[in-house]
Amino acid sequence: MNRFLKYILVFILPFPIIAAILEYEIRKVPNPYKYKYEWMQKNAADVVTLVFGSSHTFWGIRPEYLEGKAFNLANVSQGWEQDWFLLNYWANNYKQLRTVIIPISFFSWFSQGMEYGFESFRCRYYKIYMDCNLYSDFSKYSLELFDWDTARIKLQKLYSNSIELDYDELGCGNVNKLTGKNLKMWENGSEADAAIKRHTAKNWDFIAKNQAIMKHIAVFCKNHNIQLILITTPCWSSYTDNLDKKQLAKMYELTHQFQHEYQLPYFDYLKDPRFTADDFIDSNHLSDVGAIKFSQILNADILSLSK
Amino acid sequence: MLFNSFEFLVFLPIVFLLYWFVFRERKWQNLLVVVASYVFYGWWDWRFLLLIAFTSLCSFTSGLLIERYDGRRRWQQAVSAGNIVLNIGILGIFKYYNFFVENLERLFSSTLGYQFDWVTMDIILPVGISFYTFQALSYSIDVYQRKLPATHDIVEFFAYISFFPQLVAGPIERATNLLPQFQLQRQFEYAKAVDGCRQMLWGFFKKLVIADNCAMEVNQAWGGYTDSSGIQLFIVGTLFTFQIYCDFSGYSDIAIGCARLFGINLMRNFNYPYFSRSIPEFWRRWHISLTTWFRDYIYFPLGGSRCDKWKIIRNVYIVWAISGLWHGANWTFVCWGLYHATLLAIYNVLGINTKYKNVVASNRYLPNIKEALQMVLTFVLAVFGWIIFRAENLPQAVGYCTAIFTNPVSDNLFGKKMLLWCMGLMVVEWLQRDKQHALQFTQVCPFDYRPIRWCVYYVIILLIVVYAGSNQAFIYFQF
To answer: Of A221, A272, B40, B373, which has the fewest CB atoms closer than 10 Å, so is most exposed?
Structure first.
């Protein structure tokens, strides 16, 4: 037995060493989570406007078009749970923060949370790079190596010097170039169908949970004298026309209820006719052209609040 | 808990160390096996534990009752039959209830024009239920047939039913093989444990590198079969043939290897089936634990081969229809079973069903032309069988098989890279075809030198790490 254990230990010894080296190397790869955390550590005191939310705002709002020093803290699939964590994380550092933009998407009120969806792998980025204490499950979220498929791609990019940053210096996603649009899927509507299917809630069991999170955000903003602005980003008709009507009605009901309860401005651009086909990369995400246009419109609307 | 999961990577060493260092007494080791197995199984859904515990308890009790009624054969018969009905009943409800209800509804509406509104149920199929039910059945039947005495130790019986390496996808162990091992004090054997590790490594390679990558190609291609060329469809069918082999035999290798770490020998489940020279030989080499189960508990009681030719053929069809249904509640499985029954019946009529029991091309590097042609024919027949097996419904199975012969040829073939991997695997297995598994090479130069062997292991691990396909559940878990 001792002989067996000795050989097994010697045999497996290289694995933790190699794993530690690989984990260290992967963490060197630039990513938006790490960048945003570091940016906020340095600039939380000066930031005037913060944009939260999922891919809709990550790719849809360009902070340079907003008034004052603005930063995009949104990330793909980021939910209100993460938004609230991030907003609260620098609570003691904010000195200039005046505006917080939170998107309300078709799915937002009904979402169970990132941890339970097919994008749960992203939870580890909050834990590893943003000091997030929401996830304690060691087996899933503590190491990049646990998501080996993604880790492998990152390593390949690192060693082939082909890393391209998919975010700009103000945290906005920069890969949704109109030139990269998949016209086939745009025209046949297959992407829209898949997105709607993905965004339609299986049940409405998590509304109370989401209301509680939004309440935290609203109270926080009120106590810190911050203007909380609710928005719904524009989407294309292939998406908006086919959304589940009951869920959409419920989304508006909950949003208006929340808006009135906390006296908040709400800008709904979901079916805004000012946005044309070229403003979208797919049915529910703005293209680089659309993001500029939307950011300008949003900025004008925010400015109009103070008039 | 999946073998190919982080949880199992933590679970196995803990159980191993507790088994050999803390619980050294046989009884305590058995108790640990039960607890560990229930943790392993309950990881999917704790509610499954109630069912396996109930199944185990029923079979255990039936064994005791059969023993108590010694001399009263009718009572014994009633207890044994009761246990069979109970176990098959549970299996029937969880696995086949909706299938039968839906088919009865269809039958009544098409023949009588009457629309029955029977209720189908939203039932979760417990993982591995067919495997442990058959294992539980084999015990009570063996006790009834006086092949082994009833056990009075409930812990060792629960360990026999739930032993975690083989709990969810076999090998379907016989009480006559596994139960006595839980009744004896186990001794740690270095050579056995090391060989178990090798077998596990080979199993992981087959599952993660070959099966999972084949699965990605197959899943991608299967839906759009009407647009693919005939050759492409045959390639996809071939890839599925390798997928199911590597998936299932990979699982069996991991299970057998893992059991050896605990000093337990499980029966062999695969014996290089794609090197078979006939379909009967193929079935002596594929899922051996299930085919021998059907042989011993259904085929032989029906009269087996000791009756006239037509009855033999009838028996073959009965066994294979049941075998097909065992695999799942779908007509495709039944047809797959009947397809193989037909092939077996043909071999039977030709009188060549019992040929080829030895290793092919024994003591030679290459098979002769006749053997090669026989292996190719058997393989192609198996491919068509797996196409029926993989299809979602019968029209798809027929459509797919027809399209192989009718769809035009195209140059744009995919899956060729995976075919090369499969060929590589076949070469390694061919060289090792007289061994229990492909990594049993310690006596062969230069592998008798430890550093060389370790290099081989590291290379295999590297291949797994780099080329592992996206995580697919084991196919046979659904059965």
So the answer is: B373
